[in-house]
From TrEMBL:
SUPFAM superfamilies: Adenine nucleotide alpha hydrolases-like. GO terms for molecular function: electron transfer activity. It comes from Pelagibacterium lacus. This is Electron transfer flavoprotein subunit beta. The electron transfer flavoprotein serves as a specific electron acceptor for other dehydrogenases. It transfers the electrons to the main respiratory chain via ETF-ubiquinone oxidoreductase (ETF dehydrogenase).
Length: 249
């Protein structure tokens, strides 16, 4: 079974976000970039499937600038077998991403696409659903457990009422939630081996897919600073403030 894992290069989750002075977006200059955390979980799950003898090949794919090679090399160091970079310097919206991924799926013919449920830079949570719709494949989102057997995928996901388990015919699209697994760190020997693994580059323009944006960001601003807490001297004072000052939304 071949597994395709899309990964995205985003601002590292541990780096403080800076808004540009003109409010036009987030300032990424000279800041650490990393693989989207939800995509790390997807890579880890694909590797677990390979270690279990279920998957035979893992292909990582990323859409972005030349620097996204670093993100793909991380996936290769974790355990992916090969990688594809769809190169573009444009800002790509979820629908265009889904269309590009569909083109890659048509070329690679994987049995499973497993990807993060969302990217932490825009939190759109749209690409997996759009890709499944374009492919006409079944989908399961927010997976917290994945079991592959007999040409089917059993996916457990958290819902408001508890846990829901779906059974999908393969090929399928699955998006991962945080509780699915804990991604491994790439060892130094594997980092060195990753440099020799195949990484193919494709010009996004060659796919014949429109990358023109359909949305325009009006402005970007930091959230307002939280007001400091208030110390109370007694339970009676606390109750009084809760009754007369607190806002319960």
């Amino acid at each position: 079974m071949k597994v395709l894992v899309p990964v995205k290069r985003v601002l590292d989750a541990n780096v403080a976000v800076r808004v540009k002075a003109d409010g036009s977006g987030v300032d990424l200059a000279n800041l650490k970039m990393s693989m989207n955390p939800f995509d790390e979980i997807a890579v880890e799950e694909a590797i677990k499937l390979k270690e279990a003898g279920i998957a035979a090949e893992i292909v990582a794919v990323s859409i972005g600038p030349a620097q996204a090679q670093d993100t793909l090399r991380t996936a290769l160091a974790m355990g992916a077998d090969s990688a594809i970079l769809v190169k573009t310097d444009e800002t790509i919206e979820p629908l265009a991403v889904a269309k590009i991924l569909k083109s890659i799926v048509d070329q690679q013919a994987p049995d499973l696409v497993i990807m993060g449920k969302q990217a932490i830079d825009d939190d759109s949570n749209q690409t997996a659903q759009m890709l499944a719709a374009l492919l006409g494949w079944p989908q399961a989102t927010f997976a917290s457990k994945v079991v592959i057997a007999d040409g089917k995928a059993s996916v457990t996901r958290e819902v408001d009422g508890g846990l829901e388990t779906l059974e999908l015919d393969l090929p399928a699209v699955i998006s991962t939630d945080l509780r699915l697994n804990v991604p491994r760190y790439a060892s130094l020997p594997n980092v060195m081996k990753a440099k020799k693994k195949p990484l193919e580059e494709i010009d996004a323009a060659s796919l014949g897919i429109s990358l023109a944006p359909t949305l325009r960001v009006i402005s970007t601003a930091r959230p307002p600073e939280r007001k400091p807490g208030v110390m109370v001297g007694s339970v009676a004072e606390l109750v009084d403030k809760l009754r007369n000052e607190a806002r319960i939304i």
